C-alpha cells in the first residue's frame, strides 16, 4: 500500500504551486539578457527543467513498475488480478531483458529531449503563466487526455492497418503478446515519437498550459500506460484507469489488443473504438468469456 500511496503523491505533488518554486526563484535570479533568451544552451532554468522533470517522471514510472512487481511476487494477488488468457505465453526472459535494456537507454535520453524541446514550451508561454486554478488545471488535463486519445487512436490504427508500417515499426511492440509492465516503452523510435510522445505533449502545447500541467500530464500518461500494459485488471485505488462507467477500459481492452492483435486502438477511453467499430471483436470475446464463466458456475 505504501507503493500505491507514493504513486499518488508523486503525481499529485506535481500540481502544487510549491513544487515549482525552483522555477520562479530561478527565473527571478536571471539577469535581463538571460531572462529574454529562453533558448540559450546552458540557461539554468532550461537545465533545471530537464533534470527535475526527468527525476519526477522516473519516480512515477518506476513506482508504477514496482507496484506490478510486488503483485507478481504475491501468488494470491497475481492469480486474482491477472487477466486470464491461455493462448499466449508469459514473455521469455530474453524478451524481458531486451525490453528492460531498451527502456533504460530511452530513459537516459529523456533529459536530453526535455532540454532540446525546452524552447518550444517556452515559446508557448508554459513558463510564464500564473499557476492555474483548480478549474483551469482540471480542464487542461481533460483536454490533454482528449487530444492524446485522439492522436494516439489514429496513429496507432494506422500502424496496424498499413502493413508496411506494422511490419517495419509497430511489430516490435507486439513481440509482447502477453503484455507486462516492461512492454510499455518497448517500441521502435519512430513509433515512440509519433504515436507516443507527440500525442502526450500535444494538448499542453496547444493550450499553452502552465509547466506543471505539461510535466504533470506526462506523469499521468506514464502511469496509465504502465497500467494498460500490466496484464492485470487492478481495482481502485491500485488503478484509477479501469472505470468502464466513464468510458475507461484501459487494462482489459489493451490486453486484448496485445493478445489478439486486433482492434482496441484507443488509450484512455473506448469512445473512438466504439464510434469507429474497432472494438467489435473485443466485445464478442467478452460476451463469450461471460457465457463460459456462467456455464462453469
CA(first)-CA(last) distance: 33 Å
* Total E-strand runs: 0
Please compute the radius of gyration using only Cα atoms: 20 Å
Instruction: Please report the number of helical segments.
Output: 14
For the largest beta-sheet, the strand count, sense and barrel status come to: none
The percent of residues in helical segments reads 55-70%
> Which blocks of ≥5 consecutive residues have pLDDT under 50?
27-38
Q: Per DSSP, what share of the residues sits in E-state strands of 2 or more residues?
A: under 5%
Describe the overall structure.
The chain is mainly α. It has one domain (2-30, 38-296). Helices cover 66% and strands 0% of the residues.
